[in-house]
Design a protein that fits this description.
This protein is an all-alpha fold and 218 residues long. The protein folds into 2 domains: 51 residues, Homeodomain-like (Arc Repressor Mutant, subunit A, Orthogonal Bundle); 129 residues, Orthogonal Bundle (Tetracycline Repressor, domain 2). It has 10 helices and no strands. Helix 6 crosses helix 10. The radius of gyration is 21 Å and the shape is elongated. Keywords: DNA-binding, Transcription, Transcription regulation.
């Protein structure tokens, strides 16, 4: 008997329940990796520990996320986006809000609040990544990519502020970006929030006030 389906592409089986379970498994793995990273650091963290903490098999970690460098990459991307997946900078909600705002101080306030939210998730990952990149060639490329992207994003923010006509005339966009770069860094967050006990809200208010005083024309 002739096969009437011969030569036709197979239809992919799609199960919403299976997709949801896969997403939950991936999230459990990333949560376990993030916790272990904070507890013991990147060199001491193993895939076996991540699997045990997440309650899955080691092979599940490999198939869902990958090896240690891929785990770190996924943690960094989800920390930046605030979602379960990577989101391009231009599509993030706070970036769209900054572009929609017309006053420089409003733009600064939106960005400062975003920095505080992001560093809650990103700071431990970013610092661990920097340490790992110094000795682990597999993470160096990721470190360079993230730092380069961060620099480009901050330069775009500086240009967006310049377009309001409210920045100090004696500062170049590079100087504006350098000020923002240093004070939005994970290291600065750790000093004030982790070491000095500031709340994220206080940190965001400080950035807003400090950047407005430093960067805007009187």
């Amino acid at each position: 008997m002739e096969d009437v389906n011969a030569g036709q592409p197979r239809r992919r089986y799609h199960s919403p329940r299976r997709a949801a379970q896969a997403a939950q498994t991936r999230q459990a793995i990333l949560t376990a990796a993030r916790d272990l990273l904070a507890e013991s650091g990147y060199p001491a963290m193993t895939v076996a520990q991540v699997a045990r903490r997440a309650g899955v098999a080691v092979d599940t970690v490999y198939s869902s996320v990958g090896r240690k460098p891929q785990l770190l990459h996924a943690l960094a991307e989800t920390a930046l986006s605030g979602t379960d997946a990577a989101v391009p900078a231009a599509e993030r909600d706070y970036v769209q809000q900054i572009r929609a705002a017309t006053a420089a101080r409003d733009k600064i306030g939106i960005y400062a609040q975003a920095v505080a939210r992001i560093q809650l998730r990103l700071a431990p990952v970013f610092l661990a990544l920097g340490d790992a990149a110094a000795t682990d060639p597999a993470t160096t490329e990721l470190w360079d990519d993230l730092t380069d992207r961060r620099a480009r994003d901050i330069h775009r923010f500086a240009a967006n502020l310049r377009a309001t006509g409210e920045l100090r005339g004696d500062l170049s966009d590079d100087e504006v970006a350098d000020v923002i770069w240093s004070m939005a860094a994970a290291e600065y967050w750790v000093l004030l929030v982790h070491r000095r006990g500031w709340t994220p809200d206080r940190f965001a208010r400080w950035l807003t006030d400090a950047w407005a005083r430093l960067l805007l024309a009187p």
